[in-house]
Amino acid sequence: MAQTALQGIVQERLKFREKLAYGLGDMACNVVWGGVGAFATYYYTNSAGMAAAAIGTMFMISRVFDGVSDLIMGLIIDRTRSRFGKARPWLLWMAIPFAVAAVLLFSVPQNWGAGAKLIYAYITYNLLGTVVYTAINLSYGTMTALITDDSKDRTLLNVFRMLGSVIMGIIVNIAVMPMVNGFGGGPGAWRTTFIILGTVGAGLFFLCFAGTKERVGASAKKEDVVPIKAALGALFRNKYWYLIVINGIIGSTAAGTMGVNIYFAKYWLNDETLVGVLSMTTMLPLLIGLFFMAPLVVKVGKRNLMLIGCLVLITGIIVQILGVTSLSMVLAGGILRGLGMVPMAAVGFVITADVIDYGEWKTGIRTEGLVYSASSLGTKVGTGLGAGALGWSLAFGNFDAALDVQDTPAKTAILFVFVYLPLILYCLSSVILLFYKLDKQLPQILIDLKERHLKAGALD
């Protein structure tokens, strides 16, 4: 059986059931957080009766808190020592709080005034995103670098992760509005829907925890904890960390605009239930494409695949711009956008694991949690910018949730977020990726690291 060695520990290639169990973790994340990303703005404006501009600002301000909590949580993960590992136990500890926080977010009191509702939204949105989701999702992401050091297995773990994410994304985007309407369509229906989704998410996290195991660095002791100053110093000397953070902000800003889909379906396609079709058009090609990524990563390289993905995404957006009044053109462009997202989904988190290896090779200090937290900071900031851009654009276009037909400025604002903003962002991402050259260095870096670890093990 193929084996690898890291930190003096012999590791077997991962079995299918562990990869599958790991994939369940992103299903758990997406059943709640995917629903929040797709429907929170719509819930706040059209059900809770809150102002779009205030919601957009809340999303952006919350990302500042979220970024700080990411760094704190990264340091906590690197200092966690338990019989379950240092990242994996947080899945067990945070699963139920994750479900409860999701229900609270979709329970804005209807009889409160505008100011009180906004305060409630700030508290519950940050409870879910800044505290609980940060703890559980950052720990889950860090596990990629802790389960195995084998590049192929890391890629496959990420493929399973994204398969789980996309499958659940499809389910959530298709099911949420019918569930809400089936439960009566009012504020209570949203709460009931997320009680169900939160319960499913908690159960999936328990299964992910039970089916996985940390191996890399498993022998680390409390006295091996890296001082904060040294850990931060190593992070800031890692040039590729800067690139993945910047690219993460750009890509996540584009992804953070997904909440526009329901507005586009309702006010451009005149049928809010088409949000499921829009999501399926993008996610189904993404789901199918993930099955072909593992061999392509080896042949083409991670960076090159992501560049190809950007070009396909840009092409899809242009198709939608040219045929924005045609449902068939919008769906055709959505298919191309889905295909373009495949490389990003397949290797994005693997690249972060590679950057961890590079940082250790460069500085002699390995801090998985901190690198993942700093990278997650970029993702969170980008998601907040995307969600904020939607709220601000709606406000700029004088969007009025009480109107079934929006005026031209509001429709233009929706269109800007749906196609033009992502077009700009993916063009920027293509430029950033040109500076990422770690793929060529990584094989020698891994060889050097294993030699260091074997020597260190012999000295011990």
The mean pLDDT is: 87
Structural class: mainly alpha
Give me the CATH architecture, please. Answer: Up-down Bundle
How far apart the termini lie comes to 27 Å
**Considering DSSP H and I runs of 4 or more, what fraction of the residues is helical?**
over 70%
Number of domains: 1
What shape does the CA trace take? globular
Largest sheet: 2 strands, antiparallel
- Report the order of strands and helices: EEHHHHHHHHHHHHHHHH
Q: Find the CATH superfamily.
A: MFS general substrate transporter like domains
What is the CATH domain class? Mainly Alpha
Beta-strand content: under 5%
Structural Rg: 22 Å
- For this structure, the CATH topology is Growth Hormone, Chain: A
The tally of strands reads: 2
* Strand order of the biggest β-sheet: 1-2
Q: Which features does this protein show?
A:
single chain, 460 residues, mainly alpha, Growth Hormone, Chain: A, 2% strand
